[in-house]
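Deliverable D4.2, example record:
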Amino acid sequence: MHNQLNWLADRATLPHVTIQVLPFQAGAHAGMEGPFLILGFPEQADPDVVYVDNTTAGIYLEEPAEILRYTLMFDHLRAAALAPDDTVTRIAEAAARYS
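Output generated by the structure prediction step:
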């Protein structure tokens, strides 16, 4: 796990990568429903899509109201998470415990 955590901390320094840890102390949060991805596309004619994964299947959501709901959930998760610099520090601390 030490090497995996160091790999994450290293990738967090890349300009196109943002990693944020949502600490346990944040308590209950919207992401507890399960994993989801917001897929954005470069062409304006191609609207965003949300992929929601569950234990038996995955579904794609395309309705604007659904996209908005998941976008707001993502924004709330980012706001509750540690800042990117604090996240790297937390990852490094965890890696040190596994060395």
